[in-house]
Amino acid sequence: MSDNRGPAPAGSPNLTMFFAVPDSAKALEYYREVFGAEVLERFDAPDGTVAHAEIALAGGRFQLSEPMPDYGIVGQPAEGNSFTMTLWTNDVDAVFERAVASGSTVLTPLADSFSGARMGVVRCPFGIRWCIARHDRDVPQEEIDAAVAAMYEQG
């Protein structure tokens, strides 16, 4: 056994998100098929539900499980989210289309934005808000600031 001590296990980022996802087993398959995620580890509870899983996606990682209220791990609210997962991809149109075809709800249609990105936002069938984006061009900060100011002036 080697002594690979560090703040995180070898190969893991020092910051990894974790969230509760109802129907985690189906969510793992959805994230694999739609986003190209790789399930790195999975531990099931005795009843067959996902007690813990870790996923690699687009150079990042995140963890999930079924909601476990007894441990203070609860699922997403019926409406809204307090966070968004952003997936940067060269195939933004194809991934967005695949997400919608696989049951995601469009929150913001796919479009070119003032920030230089092509992006759209969906809520996957498991309650997570995903921004699917591709960086198309660098935009000067002054131009972005002006666009944001105009957006807020319009209400």
Automatic annotation (TrEMBL):
Domain of life: Bacteria
N-terminal signal peptide: none
Residue ranges annotated for the VOC domain, each copy included: 12-135
InterPro entries in the cross-refs: Glyas_Bleomycin-R_OHBP_Dase, Glyas_Fos-R_dOase_dom, VOC_core
CDD domains the UniProt entry points to: VOC_like
Protein name: VOC family protein
Taxonomic source organism: Allokutzneria oryzae
